[in-house]
Specification:
17-stranded antiparallel β-sheet, about 45% strand, 1 helix, mainly beta, about 400 residues
């Protein structure tokens, strides 16, 4: 295996330099660490906010190979590269990798504990937890998405298979791991039916199989990994995930063996004690999120007329909204960045079809058409008793102040 490649790979989790020793969150000179502070609960790290770019971000591998705080809309994490072609090495005047804060990832594991914290620290002095870290497998792991006493903390999994790089299939078959869920980005253990193997390197070769003659397993150029020898003990770590707190809304945490909060879990939801169910976190503003009840659908607001007088809503997946359905509309923006609407709760009063319009800041016209034909829902403000279906939670700046300049 290429030693330089291995060194670069291991640098993702190597602990070096200064940073919060326990993986705690803190704001930097540019990135603001946002946390939820709810009654009786430990600080629950939410994300970073890039004050220079005015957007939320999370650390992921950028197109230049560095770990950087990329916009949340990119839908990437440390397991994946930047999924948005518009973020990276742009040649059309758009943002490039260097426009985003660089960071380094390191692990923090207490003596006697198998699970620790995989944390990140930005070059601007910011820091925060990413996910759990399995010290036995020496790999990041992602907790299950629900509460429970025996929640598995899964390392990146991959299909382990035999293949030959020889188009005549004359050579000895080699074990490979097929790329799945961007598994190449972090060192991890690749699970197969009898154990785990370390992910070593990345290939873009065509692999061949003896099935039906010597034929390609996949089209040319498909990525695979080299994998290491079978590990004797690769049992997935299990831990307890629990909602903590004394108030109505309670964040989920992975717990240590001593029952203390280790790292935030179930990132998309909070437990609503009053309603006895999870509520879904939806961005509300820079300083607030809304926690939306399970029966509440999300819509994007438009208008059904060129005067922008008749408010209507469209589900993001364009699915049908029935009359009487409660819907939540997060704040939206126009292309120019001006506010279009504030977060609001509505009830569907009927459905219709036609063109969609949105306000504009142009002096020439108050509205402009964004779509010629669509199915939409007519909306009315929800009655006061429906307000309990949506609860606002405040995002506070990280508890550790930024370094002095």
């Amino acid at each position: 295996m290429n030693g330089r490649w291995l060194a670069a790979l291991l640098s993702l989790i190597a602990g070096c330099g200064s940073g919060p020793p326990d993986g705690a969150s803190r704001s930097g000179s540019r990135l603001e660490a946002r946390v939820l502070r709810l009654p009786g609960a430990p600080d629950w790290f939410a994300d970073f906010y890039d004050t220079e770019r005015d957007e939320a971000c999370s650390f992921a591998r950028a197109k230049d190979g560095e770990v950087r705080c990329l916009p949340s809309s990119v839908h990437a994490d440390l397991r994946c590269g930047a999924a948005d072609a518009g973020v990276g090495e742009s040649s059309d005047g758009g943002p490039t990798s260097a426009d985003f804060v660089r960071g380094e990832v390191h692990d923090v594991v207490e003596p006697g504990e198998r699970l620790g914290v995989l944390a990140v620290r930005g070059d601007d002095g910011s820091a925060g937890p990413v996910t759990a870290y399995d010290s036995r497998l020496e790999a990041a792991c992602w907790p299950c998405g629900s509460a429970g006493a025996d929640c598995p903390c899964e390392v990146i999994d991959a299909w382990i298979t035999f293949g030959s790089p020889d188009a005549r299939c004359l050579g000895e078959p080699i074990r490979f791991a097929e790329v799945r869920e961007c598994g190449w980005s972090t060192p991890s253990a690749a699970a197969d039916s009898i154990g785990c193997r370390a992910i070593l390197g990345r290939r873009e070769d065509t692999l061949y199989t003896n099935a039906n003659g010597c034929t390609p397993r996949r089209p040319a150029g498909v990525e695979y990994h080299d994998v290491g020898p079978l590990q004797n003990d690769c049992t997935t770590a299990t831990q307890e995930v629990r909602a903590l707190g004394t108030g109505r809304l309670r964040p989920y945490f992975v717990l240590t063996s001593q029952g203390d909060a280790l790292v935030p879990a179930v990132r998309e939801y909070l437990w609503d004690e009053e309603r006895g169910e999870n509520c879904r976190l939806v961005p509300y503003s820079r300083t607030h999120w809304a926690c939306v009840g399970s029966e509440v659908r999300e819509v994007k607001l438009y208008y059904a007329d060129a005067a922008c007088a008749q408010l209507v809503g469209v589900a993001p997946d364009r699915s049908f909204l029935q009359e009487g359905t409660p819907v939540f509309a997060p704040a939206t923006r126009q292309a120019e960045g001006e506010a279009l609407s504030k977060p609001s709760l509505h009830v569907v009063t009927g459905v219709g079809t036609g063109s969609l319009y949105t306000p504009t800041t142009s002096a020439a016209t108050a509205c402009w058409q964004v779509e010629g034909y669509a199915t939409y829902a007519f909306l009315e403000p929800a009655p006061p008793e429906a307000a309990q279906r949506v609860k606002l939670v405040e995002l506070s700046a990280g508890k550790v102040p930024p370094p002095a300049r």
